[in-house]
Structure formats: structure tokens, C-alpha cells
Please model this.
Amino acid sequence: MMIRMKLRYTTIAVVAVVAMVLWGCRQAPPAPVTPPTPPTPAQPVVGAGQGVGQKAPDFTVTDVDGASQSLGKYGGKVLVIDFWATYCKPCVKKLREYESIYQMYKAKNVAFLALSMDQSDEVIKGWRQQNDVNFPLARLNDETRKAFFGDTVLVSIPQMRIVDQKGVIRYSFGPESTKEEVEAAVKALVEEKR
Model:
């Protein structure tokens, strides 16, 4: 009987200590975050990535159709470079939305290029067959990833860089960007050429 009581008190004491330790490890709830105000179309998005205001890095990739894609190929055009992957649902949604922007502005010297984090051209081709996206799709190679993101191995996607007609990165959008922001940026650069 005495052993049972000691065992019961010991168990209660252990449970109490564990409860106090667990209670003490709780963190206060995080302070609410106010979303940033969207930028005006003629100004770069600050904080969504590096390189705004700098010359775009030269790159060369081979798209899934076997064509070479490079910065030089798009000289004199507004180039929208989207970083994405077929397994990234927000990326896929945005890429589908960007098709309408591409169709609206392709005759106005605007090009789109989507660089995928996928490891296989076949996966990207399969995705394209099921989706109505007509601009070039290519895998992001290590050299191009380093040119845009430095030594960062894990790149947060979707991301986008918009390069002006002179080869300067003018806009950098991250995962929180909207179709409307991208369209406004493209429109601003197209009108700037006039």
C-alpha cells in the first residue's frame, strides 16, 4: 500500500514537472503582419529579389523543344523570366495566368521565358501538353540559377524578373505577386519605349 502511494505521488510529480516544462516552452502568438502596399507600376518591387536596377545576368539554357534561349536572343525586347516548377501549385496557377499577358503583349515586343526547377524535360513537356502555355519552357541549369540567385541552393518559387529593352532588371516579383502587378509592370515598360 505504501509503495503504491509513493508510486502515485512520484507519477503525479513527474506529470506536474513535464506540464510546467511544456507550458514554459510555449511561445507568445506572433504579432500580426500587415501586408505591404503594392507598388505603382512604374517602380520596382523592393524586397522580392536581388538585381533590380542592375544589368540582367547573361544566361543560356536549352528549352524543352531543343532551342537555345539566352539573354542576347531577347535584346531590345521586354523579357519576363518566370522561375517555377510543375510540382509547385502556385507556380502553375501563375504561369497559366501569365499566358494571357503574353498573348496581349507579344506583338508589342514582349517575350516570356519560364525556367523550371524540374529535373526532366519530359515532365515539363507533359505538363505543357495538359496546359495552354505557349511561351518557351526550359529547365533552370546551375549556371543560370547562380547568375540570378548567387549561392542560394533553395530558391523560393514562384519568382519573376522583368528585364527592360536595355537588358536591365526593372522588376522582381516573389510568390505574393499578382497577375495585375505583373501586367502593370509589363505595360509600363512597353509604354516607356515610346
